[in-house]
Write a structure and sequence with these properties.
By secondary structure, this protein is of the alpha/beta class. It is built from eight helices and eight strands. The protein is 32% helix and 17% strand. Strand 1 and strand 2 (15-22) form a beta hairpin. The model has no long low-confidence stretch (mean pLDDT 96).
């Protein structure tokens, strides 16, 4: 791949956000917004490279309390989901971008909907991957599987000082997130988890995201999104099942829903090129 692939620290609301770019600055910018507890490494290098090769200037970043961004101790977070949305704008400002395409996964999609509503002039398009409607006001949608809830039940007793215990906990989380369309790559995932842990001084702080709330009433507001929207959802998603993607598509006028067969709540390496093609084909240039 030709072009930049460097790290840059961006100041946002008095904190530091670690960012990395892939591609050529003259190409349209595409900001990747990861989900809860996830650093920029939630976006595989191969995926970022695939998007850059399709003509995007890709920017991924560490949410606060993950990776190399500003981190506070577990339970000490005082920010809200709206602050994470403001961090996306902070990243745009840090790169002197008037506007950008935004790709958000899971909570990152929720955050991205807020950005599209609060700063519509700065969002060229929105791609929502494995996400849910902002301020859903209909009948209850299916959410996280009982198996996953049972797994999270051991968090209170997890020894974060033990690298082995931490890796096994996070590895099981990834395995439970995976779909049926491809074999779970344990070797790759162990390596990625080790990379994630090497980039943070407080791995437990990522779960500050689990207690986040919103400051504003967003009920029904996802219907007010006016920028072009592409919705991608795995058929096997065990955390936000595909009915969440269907609800998004039904509520956002002009949006397009594509269901990716055999994919869970994940970005499997075997589907990187396919998903990059869907995004490049669905984003208006």
């Amino acid at each position: 791949m030709n072009g930049e692939q460097d790290m840059r620290m961006i100041k946002s609301q008095g904190i530091l956000i670690a960012t990395q770019v892939f591609g050529v600055p003259d190409d349209p910018a595409l900001i990747l917004v990861m989900g809860a507890t996830a650093s920029m490494l939630g976006w595989p290098d191969a995926f970022c490279t695939a998007l850059a090769n399709r003509g995007f200037y890709v920017i991924r970043f560490d949410h606060r309390d993950t990776g190399q961004s500003t981190t506070v101790q577990p339970g000490e977070a005082s920010y809200a989901v709206e602050d994470l949305a403001a961090d996306v704008i902070g990243v745009m400002d840090g790169y002197n971008l008037d506007s950008a395409h935004i790709l958000g996964m899971s909570l990152g999609g929720y955050i991205s909907q807020i950005v599209a509503l609060t700063h519509p002039g700065r969002v060229r398009s929105l791609t929502l991957l494995a996400s849910e409607p902002l301020g859903w006001d209909g009948p209850a949608l299916p959410h996280i599987s009982q198996e996953f809830l049972d797994h999270f039940g051991i968090l209170a007793s997890l020894d974060w000082a033990s690298e082995t215990a931490t890796i096994e906990f996070l590895l099981t989380s990834e395995r439970l997130s995976a779909g049926s369309g491809q074999a779970f790559d344990e070797t790759y995932m162990r390596g990625r988890i080790r990379q994630i842990l090497a980039r943070t001084t407080s791995p437990a702080s990522m779960f500050n995201h689990a207690i986040l709330d919103t400051r504003q009433d967003w009920i029904g507001r996802y219907r007010d999104i006016t920028v072009p929207v592409l919705i991608l959802h795995g058929s096997d998603d065990p955390i936000l099942p595909v009915k969440n993607g269907e609800a998004l598509a039904a509520g956002i006028a002009g949006s397009e829903l594509i269901v990716v067969d055999g994919v869970g709540h994940e970005l499997p390496l075997s589907k990187v090129e396919t998903i990059a093609d869907l995004i490049a084909g669905g984003i208006p240039q």
